Amino acid sequence: MFFGCKNLSFSYYEKKVLTNINLDVKKGEFVGLVGSNGSGKSTLLKLLCGILFPQEGEVIIKDQKLDEHNRIKVGYIFQNPENQIIGVTVEEDVAFGLENIGVPREKMLERIEWALSTVGLEGLNHADPNALSGGQKQRLAIASILAMEPEIILMDEPTSMLDPKGRNEIYKVIRNLREIGETIIIASHHYSDLEHVDKIIALNDGEIVYEGEKDQFYKSNVIQSELPFNEKIKRQFNADLKELVDEICR
Length: 250
Ligand SMILES: Nc1ncnc2c1ncn2[C@@H]1O[C@H](COP(=O)(O)OP(=O)(O)OP(=O)(O)O)[C@@H](O)[C@H]1O
Ligand SMILES: [Mg+2]
Fold this sequence. Notes:
ABC_transpr_CbiO/EcfA_su, alpha/beta, Rossmann fold, single chain, binds adenosine-5'-triphosphate, 6-stranded mixed sheet, binds magnesium ion
């Protein structure tokens, strides 16, 4: 198995929030993780990258059980980029993780340049991260993870804090990441975030209730009756559209 989990269950203290989750993600796949607030998306992503540990089941990366040694292969991007930015300059921020894993200096510079250009931040090496726009900060957070050369990138609602312009910047980055064959799981409520996914995984109350094609997901009556958030996704789509039109007309 390239990446996924087997019979994963998780509770916060007494409260069970994920039940018997099985995932099988292929190399190069782009997966959308959807579900209403509190359905367990963030918890699942945190288990998949080793920030949290399951009480039952296991996470698998390249046929190995995820542990403290190989979890570096899974990159996790926080919803709020402010949580991830630590450097005084853009370059330092990307360098931080590389220093931690002992990448030699010349290799480090190469990786920094590559990661910054992949997210469209080339030339901003010496800029102050705090002076960046929201979209640029999120792209910096992606570059810092990308430079570590993870096998898979997990994004938790990467556009939820951004305006339409910032969101479009992230879509462009995702397109670039897909072109270079990165494997991505994106948790999101935004219909537009999910437009190009290969498959959708839907969580409801900590259980997988759908896994398959995106179009089928939106059509499925079962899902519509089981998942009230389907309506929310539609509304969000309309809100996205309105925002985009407003932006264009401004
Ligand atoms: N640190 C925590 N301690 C206790 N309960 C938690 C903790 N974090 C999350 N939960 C609970 O676990 C459940 C799943 O939360 P989670 O954040 O994974 O959902 P989510 O699908 O990411 O929601 P959202 O769409 O709001 O981001 C919720 O009921 C939540 O209240
Ligand atoms: Mg969440």
